[in-house]
Design a protein that fits this description.
single chain, alpha/beta, eight-stranded mixed β-sheet, Purple Acid Phosphatase, chain A, domain 2, 2 domains
Amino acid sequence: MTFFTRRRALKTLFCSSAALGLNLSPRQALADGLDMPEDRHFMMLGDFGSMEKPMEAVASGMTRYVSKRPLRPEGLWLLGDNFYKEVKGGVKSPRWRSGFEDLFPEKVFPGPCWAMLGNHDYHDTTDGEQIQLDYAKQPETRWKMPAKYYRVDWPAEKPIVTFLVLDTNWRSINERLHGSPVGNRKPWWLSAAEEAAQHQWLTAELAKPRTTPWLICLGHHPFYSNGSHGDTKTLIETWGPLFQQHGVHLYCGGHDHDLQHLELEGLKTSFVVSGAGGARVRNLKNARKVPFNQAVHGFSHLQVNASRLLLRHIDANGQQLHAFSKTPDGKITVL
């Protein structure tokens, strides 16, 4: 793994010529990477569905962040815990309007909003996971959840990145968090058959010939985390060897209510936690040395072209807290 100086990284990745035409300072232009017209931009946040003031603050901050920059996100990644507490009314609930459609206005986020399931999406509402799957079938919604796990190649024509969306709500994980259901309440996790089928699917997807420069996996629970929940050992043990074997470039999750970037010696995958979208932030627990971790509300900005991936953590005020780039062969630059 190679780390460069900040000056060299900025000189290599960016130039400030675009600042003149946009009346931005050279520093701002460098931070935004405005000389990369071939980039694909995606916004990302998890654990946002609290229906409390921090949710509105983060969403508003993300809207301002995008609106002030010459970019239109091609998609929005929702990393789970999209709804806390009971969602009354199913697909007709008013929370779909206030907690999603209006929260992320279409004029700013016109592209698909790819969602995945978190533990609260299963636990807090009976059949909550099915409600979210059913809402994706509603006409004219940007909410995309074709299945509990699925693949997205982007863009559709000549894709440069493959996303594999995963359902990490396993019994071994969620029973520890929420206990066991009582009475006739159905379990808040994948069935054993679903868990086995997903593992088979993931194994087959990873084994396919690589057709894009980038392979990114996303799921609600993190593999590694310095946050209050800590590492998810069953994910590390079950999927960690697959990620290493097939060179997954990036794994993005939420669950811990903070922003993190973790690099572990010897592992090909970079690990990102972006779970600060609106639920109460929690103090960090693990003192493991990592490039970045902070218990603060915010979101993430993923910027990709064929030769470079760039991920930024942004707070609710639109201020960049951390950024790093990665090349397809695994070289990391922390900015």
